[in-house]
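User: I'm new to structure prediction. If I give you an amino acid sequence, what do you actually give back? Let's try with this one:
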Amino acid sequence: MPTVGGSGGGATSGSSALHQNYHINFDRPEAWGIKYFTSATLLSGLQPAEPMEGFGTGAITVGFEIGWLPMLDAGQQRIGYNGTSPEDLNKAPVFIRPMVRVNLPNKFTLIAGGPPPFQVFGVTPHLLAFGVERPLLESDPWTLRWRGYGQVGSVKGAFTCPSSALAFAPGSAGNPTQCVSQSADVVSMRYAGMQLDLSYRIPSMPKVVPHVTAAGNFIDGAIQLHAPTAYGLDQTREWTRGETFFTSGGISYLVSKKATFTVDASYTPLWVRRAADAPVTNDGLFNVRALMTYTFR
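Assistant: Good question. You get back a string of structure tokens that encode the predicted 3D arrangement of the chain. For your 297 residues, that looks like this:
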């Protein structure tokens, strides 16, 4: 799944350089990797529809979300050492997350979700997303809904020194980071955001509810290396912070009064400077997600 890094200036023999902790600009290649994969985990969009009578206080809804993670090309994966070293980012083709929703008084709803905390596709997630939402305006067939949300946690994997690099000699073209063993890097993927979602219940087809969503996010991410290299154990930490914008559109289908299927396509513009002398360009994330929910009360 996620991202990657490396120290800012490349390999060095100084032991102090292997334990740096420093800030990187939000448009650096390493920061782009962090915000790209963090954006894929946003608790935004995918607004499940409810029956016209709604659900009462205490209703519990469970859901299963699956999202597509587009494959990155060789240039997009070259984000380590300020865009000079390739990283292994094409690990997971999908992002999977069980969800729970609990209806509260005054039409508030609590939301929580996270991927199972065990290794799949070579990565181990420890992520918890949570939020609260409420309709702001209900004027049938239109509904305007607000949601505030956030996420804490990290993902662990061999991004800097994957097993594929160990077949090549340290310092060679196939192993430019001089890896001597597989790394155990940890990527922090924290965020906070707010969204507005506008949905429309088609009068002639009340089970079909299209929606559009717009959201603003603050991402606070970091990459902590744990990379065994020919010049020592690289434990460099890079962190970054900044704002992103998210927009999506999709359709919910009421399979029954308790079961709903929702599909959503989203886009997040992401700005990056691929090299020190290169212009800042947009290399955004487009993905498609689906959510199946069932309400027990």
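You can read the tokens as a compact description of the fold. Here is one thing that stands out. The chain has three helices and 17 strands.
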